[in-house]
Specification:
The protein is built from 12 helices and 11 strands. The chain is α+β, with helices and mostly antiparallel strands. The protein folds into 2 domains: 167 residues, Endonuclease Chain A (Endonuclease, Chain A, 2-Layer Sandwich), CATH 3.30.870.10; 69 residues, Arc Repressor Mutant, subunit A. The two termini are 39 Å apart.
């Protein structure tokens, strides 16, 4: 098996998802929330897969009314026009716990790709938000991938899962519109506006977590340990390329990985960016 992590900072979910959908014979997606913009972002990949005869299946959550009614209606139309496409909805409006999975499965013969993480099928989840998603590539005989498909089946055959029709989608749209109206009235309340302002001001004044060497492991620890004191350049760090390669012999792009680690160390506040290719160790 091969495992990697994408977070929309280094590698984005949209590119990964679109490529996987376009290349597969079998797509299974279980997400808590879906938006019109998110669905539109994978539209071309979906059409490519469906035109090729791939089986495409969606399990979508409706609790919290966070799924866009128009996205549901669009996907319903796609499924109505393609015999190999299907959509099923998790219909509970008052669950003890919310329906919250983000599971993407793709299969070609016995080869399978599984993506598990935090990205919903929304524009934010696929492109804008900072997310964490693990991509597992292997075969259907690998235990981890087999378990992922078993989890998908438990979600699919949950007693609250239904096959939507037009009346169902219309009622859901009305629910969303009514709740949006109630929320709009609440947001115009003067006391609510004051609380939001005070909270935002307080947030801006709060301390941030302080990074230490305890937070470093793997690649980050290796790079940080080899950084010169004070000012340094990318080229100086590249001087340790052979040593890095010995630690990670399967990595074929060491310099790109080094630059990535420098950016993470910058975001952690452990080094400062001084200009193109120049840094300072704090």
């Amino acid at each position: 098996m091969r495992i990697q992590v994408i977070d929309n900072v280094v590698g984005d979910m949209l590119t990964t998802l679109s490529s996987a959908i376009g290349d597969t014979q079998d797509v299974r997606i279980a997400v808590a929330f879906m938006s019109r913009a998110g669905l539109a972002m994978i539209d071309s990949a979906l059409k490519l897969a469906l035109d090729r005869g791939a089986t495409v299946e969606f399990l979508v959550g409706l609790d919290m009314r966070s799924t866009d009614p128009q996205a549901l209606e669009t996907l319903y139309s796609v499924c109505s026009n393609h015999p190999t496409a299907a959509m099923y909805c998790y219909a509970s409006l008052t669950p003890a716990g919310i329906y919250h999975p983000k599971l993407y499965l793709f299969k070609v013969d016995q080869d399978a790709t599984c993506i598990i993480g935090s990205s919903n099928l929304t524009e934010g989840g696929l492109k804008k938000n900072v997310e964490v998603n693990a991509i597992i590539e292997g075969t259907t005989s690998d235990e981890a991938i087999s378990d992922a498909y078993n989890t998908y089946n438990r979600l699919k055959f949950h007693p609250k899962r239904v096959v939507p029709d037009e009346e169902f989608l219309n009622l859901y749209r009305q629910l969303c519109q009514t709740e949006a109206s109630l929320q709009a009235r609440a947001s115009s309340d003067a006391n609510m506006r004051g609380l939001v302002k005070a909270f935002n001001q307080k947030t801006q004044s709060m301390r941030r977590p302080a990074a230490s060497e305890r937070d470093l492991l793997g690649w980050l620890e290796l790079v940080y340990r080899n950084l010169p004191a004070g000012d340094f350049t990318n080229e100086q760090v590249y001087g340790f390329e052979e040593a890095f390669q010995r630690h990670y012999p399967d990595n074929l792009n060491i310099r790109a990985k080094v630059r990535q680690q420098l950016q993470v160390l910058r975001d952690m506040g452990m080094i400062e960016h001084m200009g193109t290719g120049r840094w300072r160790k704090i």
